[in-house]
């Protein structure tokens, strides 16, 4: 391997900018809301991915550029990608349901192999599976531009937001139902992480289109006001501490050790050699940001099969060196791959950033605003001026300051639970408490039909991944509960439909 940056891919790249330690040249590193890291698809194998994709057909819909005004240029259209799996569908004549997966901040082709929950459960309901790509990702970029070109133009990137995306999804679902003559087929929208937020919001904004929503690991309570959120890194630290107190303390002490070495003559050269970085370090923050990203990624995807936190901590604890830095590097090797004479660790973001990184950076400055912060109650060094740095990054990158209260205005703010209780229904919020983003999730039932399903040992979007024989009982039960709830929604719908037809 020539570098190890690609192991976690866009997630690692997208972590931690807006912290006071990060240089202005780096791309946005706020934790990404991807369903799974790149390593998941690598471990799943090409044969499995190819098998799933072979069951699908790809279509393109002429999507409206701007759903919310009537200027002539708003009537422009772009090719919007959606994918259908017909394999399990019972057909329009039986009003068989539609599972609509709402894509998040990546090409939909990357989502399809990751969300095995849909193909696992479609046979039970004889459901059609519809995957819809998010505008400005994958093959659904307006204007015939690359995403980078679109984001560099203020006239084009202004069409890139969650409200336009939800309207896109509504248009595609209606189009597909009309195309298949399936107007009576109930639709359940599903999504994971940011896509889970979209699914919940879709049920609120378009209840006449979606019978219900399944929102997995959706931190829907985070982007509701412009204040620092400390819960993410608190849960990251908790995961490490519960795994190993020794590992936790070693990591906590390592930051001052890095600063101490970096302050000495030739200190940065020493750190470069110790951590085998591909390029010489220009400051200690480059290394620290890389490590914070690595720890956060391990905690977010700390599933019971790969146990990345335990693997990292075992390496740190078993290293026989008396040097804290050598112990930390052992954790890097265990997590990011073995180090050889021909390999190195590329701790700086690559110049050619992925769509996820580019798009998520913009979305964090437009409407998905989540200033995550660190305090002295974690294993990390506290950061400072989080909000100031957040605003300055957005101004520097896009010439705008975030609109911090728009999400609250459009979808509901801190009182969204009260709002949902009064008029919402048929939403499942699922979470795993090992996931740092569960800090922003709904963890208690809001009503009889807006329910929270969570597990103490679950990680980010774990319930959306395909079931396997290795699944622990608690994960099996979580998925069974979710499927049972959706089954009740569909059963009630069919009863209502029959009464309407008989009347």
UniProtKB/TrEMBL annotation:
Q: Return one Gene Ontology term, BP aspect.
A: proteolysis
- Residues annotated as signal peptide: 1-24
Q: Which GO terms describe its molecular function?
A: dipeptidyl-peptidase activity; serine-type exopeptidase activity
| Keywords from the UniProt entry | Glycoprotein, Hydrolase, Protease, Signal
- Indicate yes or no for the key word Glycoprotein: yes
Keyword ATP-binding attributed: no
Which family does the record claim for this protein?
A: Belongs to the peptidase S28 family.
This protein is called what? Lysosomal Pro-X carboxypeptidase-like
């Amino acid at each position: 391997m020539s570098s190890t940056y690609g192991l976690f891919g866009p997630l690692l790249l997208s972590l931690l900018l807006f912290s006071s330690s990060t240089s202005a040249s780096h791309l946005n590193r706020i934790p990404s809301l991807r369903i799974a890291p790149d390593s998941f698809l690598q471990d799943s194998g090409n044969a499995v991915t190819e098998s799933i994709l072979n069951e699908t057909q790809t279509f393109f819909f002429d999507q409206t550029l701007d759903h919310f005004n009537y200027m002539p240029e708003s009537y422009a259209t772009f090719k919007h990608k959606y994918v259908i799996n017909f394999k399990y569908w019972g057909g329009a004549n039986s009003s068989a349901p539609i599972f609509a997966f709402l894509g998040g901040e990546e090409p939909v082709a990357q989502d399809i192999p990751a969300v095995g929950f849909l193909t696992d459960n479609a046979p039970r309901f004889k459901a059609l599976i519809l995957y819809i790509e998010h505008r400005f990702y994958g093959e659904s970029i307006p204007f015939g531009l690359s995403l980078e070109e679109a984001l560099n133009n203020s006239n084009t990137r202004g069409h890139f937001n969650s409200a336009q995306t939800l309207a896109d999804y509504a248009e595609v679902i209606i189009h597909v139902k009309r195309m298949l003559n399936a107007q009576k087929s109930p639709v359940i929208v599903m999504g994971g992480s940011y896509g889970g937020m979209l699914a919940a919001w879709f049920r609120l904004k378009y209840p006449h289109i979606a019978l219900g929503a399944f929102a997995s690991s959706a931190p829907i309570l985070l982007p509701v006001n412009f204040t620092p959120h400390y819960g993410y890194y608190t849960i990251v630290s908790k995961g490490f501490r519960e795994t190993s107190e020794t590992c936790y303390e070693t990591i906590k002490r390592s930051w001052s050790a890095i600063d101490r070495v970096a302050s000495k003559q030739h200190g940065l050269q020493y750190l470069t050699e110790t951590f085998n970085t591909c390029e010489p370090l220009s400051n200690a923050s480059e290394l620290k940001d890389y490590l914070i990203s690595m720890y956060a990624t391990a905690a977010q995807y700390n599933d019971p099969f790969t146990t990345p936190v335990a693997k990292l901590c075992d390496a740190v604890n078993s290293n026989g060196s008396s040097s804290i830095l050598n112990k930390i590097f052992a954790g890097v090797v265990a997590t990011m791959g073995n180090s050889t004479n021909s390999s190195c660790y590329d701790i700086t973001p690559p110049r050619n950033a992925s769509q996820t990184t580019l798009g998520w950076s913009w979305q964090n400055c437009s409407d998905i605003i989540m200033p995550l912060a660190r305090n002295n109650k974690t294993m990390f060094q506290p950061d400072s001026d989080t909000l100031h740095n957040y605003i300055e990054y957005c101004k520097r990158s896009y010439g705008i300051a975030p609109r911090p209260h728009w999400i609250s205005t459009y979808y509901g703010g801190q009182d969204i639970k009260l709002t949902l209780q009064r008029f919402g229904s048929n939403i499942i919020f699922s979470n795993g408490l090992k996931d740092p983003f569960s800090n922003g999730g709904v963890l208690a039932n809001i009503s009889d039909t807006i329910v929270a399903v969570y597990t103490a040992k679950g990680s980010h979007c774990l319930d959306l991944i395909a079931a396997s024989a290795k699944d622990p009982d608690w994960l099996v039960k979580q998925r069974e509960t979710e499927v049972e709830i959706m089954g009740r929604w569909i059963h009630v719908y069919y009863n209502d439909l029959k009464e309407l037809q008989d009347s």
